[in-house]
Amino acid sequence: MVWGVCSWRDMGPLMRLETTLTGGRYVSILPNHLHSFMSIVHSDGLGQFQQDSATPHASRVATKWLQEHSSDFRHFHWPPKSPEMNIIEDIRDALLHADENRSPPPRTPMYLWTVLKDKWCELPPRYFRY
């Protein structure tokens, strides 16, 4: 499993997660990766963070963390069962298909991780600018 962040301006970090994402694990990612990304890319404080309503994202601990940091950036609440309009879905699809044209295809977790990181860094702006 991977976690990543991007904005209209730039791609942020992509992280490899060794285990299932829980609310607690999610909150351990946010201070070091989301918070620093938002402070750099949206130093004017006008950045708006959007996430889907996955269970770890909607957990009490994650909601509390986002409320505590609401002065640093805004959080766009994603309504449950709403149509997918999140740009990360297109990016996810591109990552899922990143290994299709590789010869030989990734056969180890480390090789797959390398392929995903490379694809993440090579994504053209059309994936995150609409």
Automatic annotation (TrEMBL):
Q: Which GO terms describe its molecular function?
A: nucleic acid binding
Name the InterPro entries for this protein. RNaseH_sf
Q: What is this protein called?
A: Tc1-like transposase DDE domain-containing protein
